[in-house]
Every structure is written in structure tokens, then in C-alpha cells.
Amino acid sequence: MHLLCKYTGGSYPQPGEISLAHNGVLFLDEMPEFKRTVLEVMRQPLEDREVTISRARFTVNYPASFMLVASMNPSPSGFFPDDPNNTSTSFEMQRYMSKLSGPLLDRIDIHIEVQKVEFEQLAERRKGEKSEDIRKRVLTARGIQTERYQDLNISYNAQMGPKEIEKFCRLDESSFGLIKMAMEKLNLSARAYDRILKVARTIADLEESQDILPEHVSEAIQYRSLDREFWNA
Fold first, then answer.
1. What percent of the chain has pLDDT over 70?
2. Which pLDDT value is given to residue 116?
3. CA separation for the pair 69, 64 (Å, rounded)
4. Under a CB-based contact definition with an 8 Å cutoff, are residues 52 and 44 in contact?
């Protein structure tokens, strides 16, 4: 897969998968199966929302404001940590996880670990929240953000820079204590700190809360609490 650019036989590159996903979604299934060098090229576009291709005679920029959605198994065998046969060794786990670097993970807002679903749960016929109700809540949150940023050159929380974060993501003493403890315990980076604040701001918007409350910060922190034992920074 050519994420940044692709060649059509001439001297000039054409937009790759990242730019083709501009204002849309780029879904990478089985993320660690991609070469690490391929995944690392996403770091700059995820940060700057554009792709810069430099060649000897010219430099070209392509837009790349996309939502990255990726999935992966917990191990090469797919069974970790509930593998009764210990199919994956520690070395294999390290090699598998090292495809995703710490700097790349820092640029992903939400990490969700999906636990194994037992048969009894699969057989249940409980009805979840209707998609219509979720859609209404999301549209309301987007409306809040549109109004909040109407005088700025951004449209939603993910686009906030340091100045906007300082202005719109103010925390009370309890919330600040929570995020401080998470930073120290999980050894998170400054970039992860900003991501947590943005996610907490979005959670507050979904609840139509003007202020970011401790429960919003706590939920945002949980979305970055994957076990880092096998991650290669």
C-alpha cells in the first residue's frame, strides 16, 4: 500500500491512500501486519494534516485531514492473553508489538482493548442504545463545537492547538490531580497529555457539559491505558 504517494510511471507522484482519505476515514485492518516503515510515514500527516513529498526538483503538499481507524489482534496467534497453548513466545510478542512505535501511538487519540466475548454474552438478546439516539447526541456535540470555534480557523476538538487547549480545556483541581497521576503512573508523553484533554473535552460535549468534569478526564484516561509491556517506544 502506498500511503503517502503512488507513481504512475512519470516523474510526478500522485496522492496516495492518506490523501485519498482526506475528510474521510482511513481504515487499516491488522495494523501490525504492515511494515513498520510504512506505518511510520503516517506520523507527520497525523500531526500536520497534510503530506509533504520532497524530490530533487520540487516539493509538493497534499491535504491529509483524515480519521485513522485501525484494528489488530492482541498477539500473532490472536489469543493472547487467553492462549491455553502459549502459542506466542515473549520474543514473538515483542516483535509483533514493535511494529507500532510509541510516537505513532501517541498520535492516536483513543486505544480500546476489546475483551473476549463469552458464549453466554453472545447468546444474550439485549438491545443496546439505538443508532438514531447516538447520532442525535453526536450531532448535538458537533453543533456545540461549531459554535465554540466559529471565530477560529478550526471546526472540531481534534483540530485544537496549544492555545485552544489552554482556553477550552481548563481543569478543576480534582481533574488536574487525575491527569497528573495518570501521566506519572503510565509514563505518558506531553503529546498524550494533549490528546487526553481533547478527548475529555469531547466527552463533556457529548454530555452537553460546559465544564470538563473529573469523570470526563477519568474516561479519557481509560482510553489510553493499554498495557505497554510489549510496546517498543
1. 85
2. 76
3. 14
4. yes
Given a contact cutoff of 8 angstroms between Cβ atoms, the answer to whether 94 and 232 are in contact is yes
* Helices 214-222 + 190-206 axis angle, to 10: 120
- 101 within 8 A of 36, measured Cβ to Cβ: yes
- Render pLDDT for 183-212 as a digit per residue (tens, 0 to 9): 988 888 888 999 999 999 999 999 999 999
Kindly compute the dihedral angle of the four CA atoms of residues 226, 229, 231, 233, in this order, to the nearest 10 degrees: 110
How many whole angstroms separate alpha carbon 199 and alpha carbon 110? Answer: 8
Lowest mean pLDDT among 95-99, 140-144, 151-155: 95-99
Set of cell numbers at residue 197: 484533554
pTM listed for this prediction: 0.83
Per-residue pLDDT, 3: 72
Alpha helix stretches (DSSP H) within the chain: 17-20, 36-40, 43-48, 90-97, 102-106, 119-123, 131-148, 162-168, 173-186, 190-206, 214-222
Cell match 513529498: residue? Answer: 53
Give the three cell numbers for residue 164.
485552544
